Amino acid sequence: MLEVVQVPVLTDNYVYLAHDAASGETAVIDPAVAEPVLAAAAARGWTITQILNTHWHPDHVGGNAAIVTATGAKVTGPRDEAERIPGISRAVAAGDSIAVGASTARVIGVGAHTAGHIAYAFEADRVLFPGDTLFALGCGRLFEGTPADMFAALGKLMALAPETLVYCAHEYTQSNARFAVTVETDNAALKARVVAIDAARAQGLPTVPFTLAQEAASNPFVRARDAAELGVRRAAKDGFRG
Ligand code: ZN
Ligand code: FE
Predict the structure, then answer these.
(1) pLDDT over 90, % of the chain
(2) Which of 5, 124, 207, 218 has the least C-beta neighbours within 10 A?
């Protein structure tokens, strides 16, 4: 099984280490920067062997070059954005599989935040790295895709097992919550979650990871089909984050 370590960097980015103890392999997902990520790996006696990038934005690939220099890690990234992924050695697309030790991730195409954005789903481990596509109570801002693209992308992620833990790339939850409660004013699950989110943030604790089941119950962007009559679609056009 994968052990996932969260490394908070910059203002609100999360970089992740995914370690397979049996093989000793360690992947880093979306390294915005290098130094704190290398330090987090070294503190555990781990050597980074792979970098997995979800999309080309600098706060997801900024650490690639220095980590490759330090470790010789192989870089996997989205085929459709390959020319913008520093140090890329393996370009992948929807349907491809990649291995981290004994764990396997399926590559899911989720173009919307950026056109070639991919997610990595370690289905047997119940671990998802959606980059900037799905956030707690929100979704990524539409830089290169349409609302329909994003809705389709979210649907692919929500089709994974409900207990899947979601390791998204930003701590945007509290501001997403402020928006979500204006969309669904009567959702008890959402209200309870917002209380827990505010309590966690008051203590400086992360609200990530979270489960797909939580999103199904309270994220207005994944609930848009069911909740259209509540005004989700109308409200959503001003609510994208990323
Ligand atoms: Zn981004
Ligand atoms: Fe980002």
Answers:
(1) 92
(2) 124
Q: Which residues are catalytic?
A: 55, 57, 59-60, 113, 132, 170
User: Which CATH fold topology does 3-236 show?
Assistant: Metallo-beta-lactamase; Chain A (3.60.15)
Q: Token pair of 161, please?
A: 């097992």
Residue 230 has pLDDT above 50, yes or no: no
- Does residue 197 or residue 224 have the better pLDDT? 197
Compute the distance between CA of residue 215 and CA of residue 224 in angstroms, rounded to an integer.
12
Would the CA dihedral through 133, 155, 166, 181 be positive or negative? positive
Q: Which helix (H) or strand (E) is 212 found in, with range?
A: helix 212-218
Q: Residue 227 C-alpha to ligand 2 middle, in angstroms?
A: 27
* Domain spans of the chain, in order of start: 3-236
Q: Rounded to a whole number, what is the distance in angstroms from the first to the last CA of the chain?
A: 30
Residues with CB under 5 A from ligand 2 (ion): 59, 132
pLDDT at 229 over 50: no
Contact 176, 235 (CB under 8 A): no
Q: What number of H helices and E strands is found in the chain?
A: 8, 14
Ligand with minimal distance to 59 CA: 2
CA–centroid distance, 199 to ligand 1, in Å, is: 27
| Phi, psi of 27, rounded to the nearest 5 degrees | -105, 145
Cβ neighbours, 10 Å, residue 13:
19
Nearest ligand to the CA of 144 is: 1
Q: What is the 38 CA–ligand 2 centroid distance (Å)? A: 20
Nearest to 76 by CA among 67, 164, 209: 67
Average pLDDT for the chain: 94
